[in-house]
Amino acid sequence: MNNNWQDSLAALLNSGTLPDGEQGAKEVVDDKHKEDQRGKLVISIEKKGRSGKTATIISGFTIAPNDLDLLAKKIKSTLGTGGSARGGEILIQGDRRQDVRRLLTSLGYTV
To answer: Which of 41, 50, 54, 93 could form a disulfide with 82 if both were Cys (CB 3.0 to 4.6 A apart)?
Structure first.
């Protein structure tokens, strides 16, 4: 009995008979959700525990892990450097704070 309303909703969605107002409201919520996912990012450098090598750390992400991996790949390929995405952070090899800031700002992130 608990799935009865879910089955009814699924049938409505599949039939395409939802009123236009409901679909428009969903799009507004989705856009707001995308903005909330971006959040404010923090860029820092770190040498500790890296054999004296500098790394740029980008933290503060609230996006899905798959999206974080894709963003890390884009940053690494654009800057022509190595790095990784782990634990909700992106690590870029070297002190690339200014380059990362420009790139993320151009992609619409708040840094």
So the answer is: 93
Please, is 58 exposed, middle or buried when counting C-beta atoms within 10 Å of its C-beta (0-12, 13-18, 19+)?
Answer: buried
Quote the CA–CA distance of 60 and 107 in Å, as a whole number.
15
Residue type, 83: G
Which pLDDT value is given to residue 4? 73
Q: What is the 3-state secondary structure (H, E, C) of 75-98?
A: HHHHHCCCEEEECCEEEEECCCHH
Find tokens 């800031």 and name the residue.
Answer: 101
62 Cβ contact partners less than 8 Å away, ≥ 6 residues apart: 36, 37, 38, 39
Cα–Cα distance, 79 to 96 (Å, whole number) = 9
DSSP letter at 63 equals S
pLDDT tens for residues 31-55?
444 444 456 899 999 988 778 889 9
